[in-house]
Write a structure and sequence with these properties.
By secondary structure, the protein is an all-alpha fold. The protein has one domain. It has seven helices and no strands. α5 packs antiparallel against α6. The longest helix is centred in the middle third of the chain and has 25 residues.
Length: about 140
C-alpha cells in the first residue's frame, strides 16, 4: 500500500471513530451516570454545566470527525490542513495527558486517550511527508 492510500485510510478511520461522538451527545443523563459509576469514578455530578460540557464536547468531537473525513477526500489539495491535523493531534495528545493527570483520571483513561492521539498525529505527519515530499520542505 502506498503512503498516500495509507494516509487516506488512517484519516478515514480517525474521522469515523470521532463521528461516534455524535451518539454520545444524545445519551440520557441516567446512562452517563451509570457508566460513570461503573468506571469507578463515583457519583456523576448532575448539574447543568456538566450536562452542557459533556454534550458540547461530544458535538465538537463529532464535527472534528466530519472535517477529517472531508479532508481525506483530497489529501493533496488539503495538504496544509493534513499537516495541521497531524501537528495538532500530537499537541492535543500532550495536553490531554496533562489534563488527565491534573484531573486525577484513572491511569487507564490517560493511557488510552492522549498517547494514541499522539501516535495518530505522528503517523499522519509521516505518511503526509512520504506522500508529498515536495510540500514538506520549505
Amino acid at each position: 500500500m502506498n503512503p498516500q492510500r495509507a494516509l487516506i485510510l488512517l484519516l478515514r478511520f480517525l474521522g469515523c471513530v470521532l463521528l461516534l461522538a455524535f451518539g454520545a451527545m444524545l445519551l440520557p443523563e441516567s446512562f452517563m451516570a451509570a457508566m460513570h459509576a461503573r468506571l469507578g469514578m463515583g457519583d456523576f455530578p448532575a448539574s447543568p454545566l456538566v450536562d452542557y460540557l459533556t454534550r458540547s464536547i461530544a458535538a465538537l468531537y463529532g464535527f472534528h470527525g466530519v472535517l477529517i473525513l472531508l479532508v481525506s477526500r483530497d489529501v493533496a489539495r488539503y495538504g496544509p490542513i493534513v499537516t495541521y491535523l497531524g501537528v495538532m493531534s500530537v499537541v492535543v495528545g500532550i495536553m490531554l495527558i496533562a489534563i488527565d493527570l491534573h484531573a486525577a483520571m484513572p491511569w487507564w483513561w490517560t493511557t488510552v486517550e492522549g498517547p494514541p492521539l499522539m501516535v495518530m498525529g505522528l503517523a499522519i505527519l509521516l505518511l503526509s511527508r512520504a506522500s508529498f515530499p515536495a510540500q514538506s520542505s520549505p
